[in-house]
Write a structure and sequence with these properties.
Blueprint: H1 12-18, H2 22-34, H3 38-45, H4 49-63, H5 66-75, H6 84-92, H7 131-147
Helix pairs in contact: 2-4, 3-4
């Protein structure tokens, strides 16, 4: 299948996640949507990094099981549709805690791909929540260079 997923398939990912245990589904969402590492997943779920790595591995393996992968295969070509069903799961499981942290002001921000309905992983992930923080960090770096 090429192009965007068909409208009738938009809630397949959310329905597939609902068939999994909550911790497993949360690990998958943190990894797929927010690009979280096993270290971040472990910290947020209160488990060790090794346990988070194992949980993520088991969860992704569970998605490959024929009972779940059949619908997902037809659903997408590497794009995840963030629809109302998936947004409900994100709110219910408080997935915002996996959101990246701004390197300047230390506030959490939503990755760019959550603002658009189609997730597309191209380019380097952002380090700052806004252009204002990016510019402030640049000015702080330039000020340090001029003083040295």
């Amino acid at each position: 299948m090429t192009g965007r997923p068909q409208p009738e398939w938009t809630n397949v990912f959310a329905e597939t996640l609902k068939t999994m245990k909550a911790h497993n589904a949360m690990a998958v969402l943190a990894y797929v949507l927010y690009g979280s590492t096993p270290q971040v997943i472990g910290q947020q779920l209160g488990i060790t990094t090794f346990a988070a790595y194992r949980l993520l591995h088991q969860s992704l393996s569970a998605l490959r099981h024929p009972s779940r992968s059949q619908g997902l295969r037809e659903y997408s070509d590497g794009e995840v549709v963030v629809d109302s069903e998936l947004r409900t799961l994100i709110r219910h499981w408080d997935m915002e805690r996996f959101a990246p942290v701004c390197a300047q002001c230390a506030s959490r921000y939503q990755p760019d791909h959550l603002h658009s309905p189609y997730v597309n992983y191209r380019g380097r992930p952002r380090k700052y929540c806004s252009n204002r923080c990016r510019q402030a960090a640049y000015r702080a770096r330039c000020g340090e260079r001029n003083r040295a």
